[in-house]
Amino acid sequence: MIETKRLTLREFTLDDREEVFRLSQEEGIKRWLNNQTYANEEKAATVLSNLIEQYRLRDSEVFVLAIDLKHPKKLIGHIGYSTYDDEYEIGFAIADEHKRKGYAKEAIKAFTEFSFMEHGVSLIAVVEKDNKASIHTVKSCGYKKVKEFQNKIIFESELK
C-alpha cells in the first residue's frame, strides 16, 4: 500500500468489481484505454482476478493498484505498469468526475518512486499525441520526452 496526502494506492480485491466495471464505461476510458472497457461485471471480475494473481509474483510483468480517495474513501482509478518491448510502461486512469484535481499527478509521482525503490523498475510513459491532458500530467511528474513515432510520444522517468 502506498499513502499520499489525499490518496491510498492499494491492491485490488474482487469486491472492487462493480466499481471497476462502472469506471470502464466512462468516456475517458473508452477513448484512451479502450482495451480496459468491460462488457459486464463478470469480465471485470476476471480481469481483477488476473491482477490479484500478479501480486504474488515478485517479478511480474504486470502490477496494477487501485487508487482510492482517502476522504471520502472511494475507488477513483488505477495505476500500474506492464511490459512494453523490453521496458516497463506506466498506465493510469482517473474517474471522469475526479479529473483535473491533481490526483493523477499525486498517484504517478508516488507510484513511480515506489516502482523504482521497491521493484527496481524504471518507468516510461507511452502517450497518444492527442492526449494533451496525459502529456501535461506525465511532464509535470518529471517524465522527459525521449521519442516520437506514429501517433505516440514516449516519456522516460527521471528515476533510473
How does this model look, in words?
The chain starts with a strand and ends with a strand. With 160 residues, it is of the alpha+beta class. Helix 1 (17-24) packs across helix 3. 34% of the residues lie in helices and 31% in strands. The longest helix has 17 residues, at 103-119. It has an 8-stranded mixed beta sheet, sandwiched between helices. The protein has a single domain, classed as Aminopeptidase (3-Layer(aba) Sandwich), CATH 3.40.630. The protein is built from 5 helices and 8 strands. Strand 3 and strand 4 form a beta hairpin. The mean pLDDT is 91.
Please outline what is shown here:
The chain is α+β, with helices and mostly antiparallel strands and 160 residues long. The chain contains five helices and eight strands.
